[in-house]
Amino acid sequence: MNESPPALQLSQITKRFAGTAGPLDILNGVDLAMSGGEAVAVTGPSGSGKSTLLYIVGLLDEPTGGTLTITGEQPLEFDTAAQARFRNRNIGFVFQDHHLLPQLTVLENVLIPTLPLGGADATAETRARQLLERVGLGERIDHRPARISGGERQRVAVCRALINQPKLLLADEPTGNLDQATAESVGSLLLEIAAEQQTMLICVTHSLELAGRFPRRYELVGGRLEPR
Ligand code: ADP
Ligand code: MG
Question: Domains in the chain, start-ordered, CATH in brackets?
Answer without folding.
Answer: 36-61+78-218 (3.40.50.300)
